[in-house]
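Box 3.1. Reading complex inputs
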Amino acid sequence: MCVGVPMQVISVDGDDIVAEVDGVRRSASIMMLADEVRVGDYLIIHAGFAISKLDEEEAVETLRMMREVFSEEDMQ
Amino acid sequence: MNYQDEYRDRELVQGLAGRIRRLVSGCGRTMTFMEVCGTHTMAIYRFGLRSMLPPEIRLISGPGCPVCVTPNDYLDRAIAICRLPKVITVTFGDMMRVPGSSSSLMEERAKGADIRIVYSPLDAVAIAIRNRDKKVVFLGVGFETTAPTVAGSILAAEAQGLTNYLVLASHKTIPIPMQLLASDPEIGIDGYICPAHVSAIIGAEAYRPLAEEYHTPCVITGFEPADMLQGILMLAEQALKGESRVEIQYSRVVRPEGNLKAQAMLAQLFTPSDVAWRGVGVIPGSGLSLREEYRRFDAEKMLPLEVEPTKEHSGCSCGEILKGKMAPQECALFGRLCTPENPVGACMVSSEGSCAAAYRYGQ
Ligand code: SF4
């Protein structure tokens, strides 16, 4: 029920969008999002509704922080 | 980039696991962290996270699988609905095989009931538009992530002027049962791996009482292996320092305030109510019922239902498993009398259930 992977928006028509991940396309409603949605954005889609937009800056920042906390000795 | 591969990077995952080992080594205690989200349950098994963690860290699963926490009595009502004439019952697929007291939706469909599986509640509205001479009843089960999608479907039906779309609503909200379990010394929870997409809706604020009144560290955590390990690391750091705060690991998706528009939709259509959780019993204020103004969409109020007396399945330990008091393998029926092909209890049916995940990934 809960697909954890963000899907990329490939078209927007009012509140209806089509998004894609790994070649699978799904239509969804963005009536629940306050953010503006553009083609190319990544959205979390649950049961036919976009529930959140992926914040790419935060995604990169989280990866950076993850790499910062471990050192060579943790890789043993 | 959707970042999935980055968060599965082997080196990153191993480095984080190593960092956790170094942090807790010699701390002289065991920390028990509970996840309350079926997708986390699956991820823990699928990526073999338990085997990467030191013995000081114990992961247990709580009541996070929506199908699993739905008691037999709801299924019995759904079954009573699908037996009515001129009714189309619409559901998410994972409800089909859950055993009710004496039947399941799957068995009812084999006997001729019109039951359809959809991916979105909006598909149920589309079915209602095409079948105006019938009542179309959507089985509204799920947590705060799913409840607004059902709210959205009712608003869509209202906008279309539909009079034949109904919902059998039994939505649940997760923070109150989390508080209940946090205060049970028998479980001994030292921190919560808070759900990812539920939190995208309700925000971090919803867990504040847990952190402040129940002194339980809370970290809202994503689903990828690096996310989960970072979340566990953040929990361990809080626990070792004796702190209890709400932190967001999954900041690329979850905002502190949550999704305000979805929260407004929930408040418009639903009101908190008392609801029964499998294994736990009735938890006051942990359910969402349709408001009186929307009763014309409420299957419970609008349809004449004859529901059979509820019976539980003897020998099934789903209740104890959902409270984190038992592991699936400790159930005497696990893997022998109860398998995903022939499930005895709900926890073996849904792919998000602890028993199904434990069976599938064999740990
Ligand atoms: S293994 Fe089957 S019978 Fe045992 S608790 Fe899980 S679902 Fe119930």
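In summary: The longest helix of chain A spans residues 56-69.
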